[in-house]
Design goal:
This protein is an alpha/beta fold. It has twelve helices and 15 strands.
C-alpha cells in the first residue's frame, strides 16, 4: 500500500492531510483529481495560484528549459526583465531583488541584510509566527509559546481583535495596548545592548490566524520600528501575488515595508523566492556577501515567474480574488452567524478563515471540530485544512482562478458539513 511504502521511504511522521489521506494524480485550474478519477475543488493550495497545470506557465517553463538554463553568473535579459517587472509592482521602497528558492531562504537573506544595514542583531516577530525552517529563521517560530525568546529574537503578541490581550477595550485602546507591547520589546532589545535590526512579520499574520487588526496597527508599528533605527520586513510569502485582492498583503493592511520576501505562488510550483529592498540595501548585501544560490536567479525561474505575472494580469485574477473572496466571506459569515461553534469569519480576498470554537462566549478554540470540518469537506469534494495558532481555523485559500460557481458549491458543502458536525 502507498501509505506504508511512504512511511518506509519518507519515514513515519511526514505529515499528511485528512484522517483518510487522498492520493492525487492530476490537477487542472482549481480542480484536482485522485487516482480513482474523483474530482475535488481545491480551496486550500496557494502555490498553484494561477491554476493547477496552467498551460501558459508550463509552456514557458518547458520552452526555457529547452532553450537555456544556467546559473546567475551570466547576463540574461529574462532575469533582468523579471526583476524590473516585480519592482514596478511594488511600493517605491522596493527597487531590486536577491532571488532564492524558498521562503525560508528569502527570509534568511532579509534578516542578514537588516543586520548588516543596521549593525544591530535584534529581530522582532510575533508569538505565533512561522517564517521558515532553517536554523536561524526557524528560531522565529512560536517564540514565547513553544520556543523560548533569545537575546536576539523576541516576540510581541500578535494583534487580534477576536481574542484580544485584554477584555473590554475599544479597538483604539487595543491598538495602543498592542503597540505598547511592540514598544516594550524594542526597548528590551535596546536595554540589553543587542539593539533592533528589524521587525519581521507576515503582512497578514497568516500563520497566526489571519486576525482582524486594529485599523492603524501596522503603519504605527512600522513607525515605532523605524524610530528605533530598525527596518520593517514584510513576509509576503503567503500574502503576496494577488491573494488579498491587492498585489501585496501590505497594501491590504496599510503599511510600506523596507524589505519584502516573496515565495510560494511566485512560480506556480517552480521554486522561486525573492528578497526585495532598496537598491542601496541590496547592494550593501551584495558587497558584504558572496551570495550565490545555485538554482536561483536563473532563466528558468524568471520564465516561470514572468508567466505567472502574465496570467494574473491577463485573467484579472486580482479582481477575481476580490469578488469571489467577498462572496465566500459573506456566505460563510451567513452560515456561521447562528452556529454556536463557528465564532468568527474573517480574511480578505481569497484568504478566509472560519474560527471554530467550543462556544461563542468563551471562544475556546476547538481544533478537533475544525479537523472534522476539513475531513468532511474533503469527503464532499472540497480541499481545506485546519490551521492557525490554535489549529482551530478552517482555512479557505483556493487558487486565484476559483470561480463563483465553485464558491457556490463550496458554500453548500460547508453548510452540509456544519449541519452534520455542529448539529
Ligand atoms: C509566512 C511564511 N513565510 C515563510 C514560509 C517558508 O516558506 P518555504 O516553505 O518556501 O521555505 C512559509 C511557509 O509556510 C510561510 O507561511
Amino acid at each position: 500500500m502507498l501509505l506504508q511504502r511512504r512511511e518506509r521511504s519518507l519515514g513515519a511522521g511526514a505529515e499528511l492531510f485528512y484522517r483518510h489521506p487522498i492520493q492525487l494524480v492530476r490537477g487542472q485550474g482549481a480542480y484536482v483529481f485522485d487516482e480513482a478519477g474523483r474530482r475535488y475543488i481545491d480551496f486550500y493550495n496557494n502555490v498553484p495560484a494561477v491554476g493547477h497545470g496552467n498551460a501558459h506557465v508550463a509552456d514557458a517553463i518547458s520552452h526555457q528549459q529547452r532553450t537555456l538554463n544556467v546559473n546567475s553568473r551570466y547576463l540574461h535579459e529574462g532575469v533582468v526583465a523579471y526583476a524590473e517587472r516585480l519592482a514596478s509592482l511594488h511600493c517605491s521602497r522596493i527597487e531590486s531583488f536577491v532571488f532564492s528558492c524558498s521562503g525560508t531562504e528569502a527570509n534568511e537573506v532579509a534578516i542578514q541584510m537588516a543586520r548588516m544595514a543596521t549593525g544591530r542583531r535584534g529581530i522582532l516577530c510575533t508569538n505565533a509566527a512561522y517564517h521558515g525552517n532553517s536554523d536561524l529563521v526557524g528560531r522565529l517560530t512560536n517564540v514565547g509559546r513553544t520556543q523560548p525568546e533569545s537575546p536576539d529574537i523576541r516576540a510581541f503578541p500578535f494583534p487580534d481583535l477576536y481574542r484580544p490581550i485584554a477584555e473590554g477595550l475599544s479597538e483604539q485602546e487595543l491598538e495602543e495596548a498592542y503597540l505598547a507591547r511592540v514598544q516594550d520589546t524594542i526597548e528590551r532589545f535596546e536595554a540589553s545592548g543587542v539593539g533592533l535590526a528589524a521587525m519581521l512579520v507576515c503582512s497578514l499574520f497568516a500563520n497566526e490566524g489571519l486576525p482582524n487588526l486594529p485599523p492603524h496597527f501596522m503603519a504605527r508599528a512600522a513607525e515605532r520600528v523605524r524610530a528605533a533605527g530598525g527596518l520593517v520586513i514584510a513576509d509576503e510569502v503567503q500574502a503576496g501575488f494577488g491573494r488579498t485582492g491587492h498585489w501585496w498583503g501590505y497594501q491590504a493592511t496599510g503599511f510600506e515595508p523596507d524589505i519584502v520576501t516573496l515565495g510560494k505562488p511566485m512560480g506556480n510550483g517552480v521554486p522561486i523566492s525573492a528578497t526585495g529592498a532598496s537598491r542601496k540595501l541590496i547592494e550593501l548585501f551584495r558587497r558584504k556577501t558572496d551570495h550565490f544560490n545555485t538554482y536561483a536567479s536563473s532563466p528558468l525561474q524568471a520564465a516561470a515567474g514572468m508567466a505567472v505575472l502574465d496570467v494574473i494580469e491577463r485573467e484579472g485574477l486580482i479582481v477575481n480574488a476580490r469578488q469571489v473572496g467577498a462572496m465566500l466571506r459573506e456566505g460563510l459569515a451567513r452560515i456561521s452567524a447562528t452556529d454556536p461553534h463557528l465564532g468568527d469569519v474573517r480574511g480578505c480576498g481569497l484568504f478566509i478563515v472560519v474560527d471554530v470554537v467550543t462556544d461563542r462566549t468563551s471562544k475556546t478554540p476547538d481544533p478537533e471540530r475544525a479537523a472534522a470540518f476539513a475531513d468532511r469537506l474533503m469527503e464532499l469534494g472540497f480541499l481545506t485544512a485546519a490551521a492557525g495558532a490554535y489549529k482551530n481555523l478552517v482555512k479557505v485559500r483556493p487558487p486565484l482562478v476559483v470561480s463563483k460557481d465553485d464558491a457556490t458549491a463550496f458554500l453548500e458543502a460547508f453548510e452540509t458539513a456544519r449541519r452534520e458536525i455542529c448539529g
